[in-house]
């Protein structure tokens, strides 16, 4: 029984989290490499600058943006993420014209992770797709965490 439990535990460590992005505060899974997208359609007047960043093994565009309270965020995109919606969709001061936003929190620790962006009008001809904008500082790559916990090879 114990041997079985240990085996299950070890195999769950070694196969978990490859290419995953975790909440930096509590380690909950937020999204994974295959979900990453380059966000397009940013409001250029609100964009401070953008850069490419290697994230979970994929080059991803990061938009540096400020909100009306003058807080600065480094935002990258994902098609989906495991998050908890907080409040109702808002249209004012949106960074992505044509999209309204909803604040998203980590499901486990409630830390602010980013925003869910959905098209203002969902018409049949609309090419706009909803996406999640995540705050780069609030996630950590699981592959990177694994390098910190590995026993060195001599
Ligand atoms: C984002 O665009 C860069 C080129 O600027 C490309 O190399 C990269 O693969 C793209 N990333 C995603 C997640 O589509
Ligand atoms: Zn968390």
Automatic annotation (TrEMBL):
Q: Which CDD domains match?
A: CRBN_C_like
Every CULT domain range: 18-143
Q: Which domain of life is it from?
A: Eukaryota
Q: Which UniProt keywords apply?
A: Signal
**Segment forming the signal sequence:** 1-15
Name of the molecule in the record: CULT domain-containing protein
Source species = Caenorhabditis elegans
